[in-house]
Here is the input.
Amino acid sequence: MKITLDNVVKSFDTFRAVHGVSLEIGSGELVALLGPSGSGKTTILRMVAGLDYADGGRILFGDEDATDIPVRERGVGFVFQHYALFPHMTVAENIAFGMKVSKRRRSRAEIDARVTELLALMRLAGLGDRFPAQISGGQRQRVALARALAVDPKVLLLDEPFGALDANVRRDLRRWLREIHDELGITTIFVTHDQEEALDLADRVVILNEGRIVQQGTPEEVCRRPGSAFVTRFLGDANRLEVEVRDGRAALAGGSIDAPGVPDGRAELFARPADLDWASDGSGIAASVLRVIDRPENRRLVVRLPDGVTAELDVPPETQVAAGDTGALRLRRASVFPLA
Here is the structure.
């Protein structure tokens, strides 16, 4: 099912949450809406679901204008962050609930067969007679997804579904969700403020800020070719340096770097910790080590530059360096934007 948002607007009493968003989501595509709190991503999801109505623009399901269709008639499955399971119902009864109240009549045998099928698909076989309080958070989230899928939705909507879970469970569940999506092929919109989740899961990432789309593309496109300083900062750690651009080159202490399309004048350069190398001697930007942070996969150096600015970079775990050492940073890649 293809979904089209055509210049959609949503206002509340004191502010406008969504400013004329236009977006096309292909049939079978998994799209992540990513942005900080208040960026409009959940409001967009709720309008697609029919839980909120747009004040302007249209929402199309295929060629059908779904803007004013009630939620029960839209054919969407919705999964909430906090599961929203019925505590007095068993796992099997929770999954069956939507089928029992649906306009589409199903026999008891059909419902039972569908529940059994979904329990197996969600790796919940044998748990159908338990109550939500008797299973783990990750299992409850899978029950919520099974309930959403039970009514054979045309569109699956997920609103920060892993936000209440710990990091390891979230990582396992998002890999599993991607497998389920690839198997079922349902058009899916996934809302998150977690960059890693969006980049791991999505075919396409749509980045929002203050109710507007600021960039969209594949995970590779938004990571490797950020379109603005906001996107660069939002997608993970980034060191910021003020630089001078002349003739397409950004000059900084110890060298220069290409800055295509950036006009001459003051600009800001962003480099991620993995974009910098450490040298104990030789050319580069002079730096002194303030702190060494050890992590399983690397060592993170916090350094001070000559102008007093601090920067962070990652080095291999075997690198011998300590607080107080001096050396130089070497820049391998960076993004440069005009200074706002």
Summary: Helices lie at 41-49, 91-101, 108-121, 137-150, 167-184, 195-201, 219-224, 229-234.
